[in-house]
Amino acid sequence: MLQFDRLEADAEALAQRFAGATPFEHIVIDDMCDAAELHALWQQVPDPLAQQLNKSRDYMFARNKYEKSGFKDIAPPFAALHADLMSERFQRLLQRIT
Questions:
Q1: How many CA atoms lie within 13 Å of 23's alpha carbon, on the beta-carbon side?
Q2: 3-class DSSP state for residue 4?
Q3: Is the N end or the C end of the chain the one with fewer CB atoms within 10 Å?
Q4: Residue 66: helix, strand or coil by DSSP?
């Protein structure tokens, strides 16, 4: 789901943006994921009321927040995103940028 080839090709420019950001080092990366795949993922986000997901136990600040542990188990697109985010390839990319 992550656009690794594009991100890796832009890694040096991303690293410069990260290092030069103020007031502290940070970066925002637009179009990090394939838009069609991300849309397919979004289409499969469960309705918390219909799916009876767990309501957050943080009653002070998250009254209308629902939780789903193990988001990778919701549907295949979630598993694909989780695999990309947890991959060694993504870790190496983050190391190059930061």
A1: 0
A2: helix
A3: C
A4: strand
Which of the four pLDDT bands, split at 50, 70 and 90, describes residue 2? very high
Q: Which residues contact 86 (CB under 8 A, 6 or more apart)?
A: none
Helices 76-86 & 35-43, crossing angle to 10 degrees? 130
Contacts of 41-47 with C-beta under 8 Å, sequence gap 24+, read: 41/1, 41/75, 41/77, 41/78, 41/81, 44/74, 44/75, 44/77, 44/78, 45/74, 46/74
Residue ranges of the alpha helices (H) in 21-75? 35-43
